[in-house]
Amino acid sequence: VTLDLAAGAQHEAGFAGASLTQRVPTLLHGGLALSESSAIIEYLDEVFAGVPTTMPPTCAANGPSPMWTWP
Hints:
32% helix
């Protein structure tokens, strides 16, 4: 879905009803709506286990990854 953020489309009823926080990005999957980047990344890694991941393979390598999603 394409949204005109400058026009505030994320606050319109269609999107706001699907996104609890009315923020972008929002992932809609199987009736679930996630609106935080870190939650989306963790969800994708768990739901699609066995495919290439977005997160580093070890705990030590994963240390800086939350910084990628902070504003």
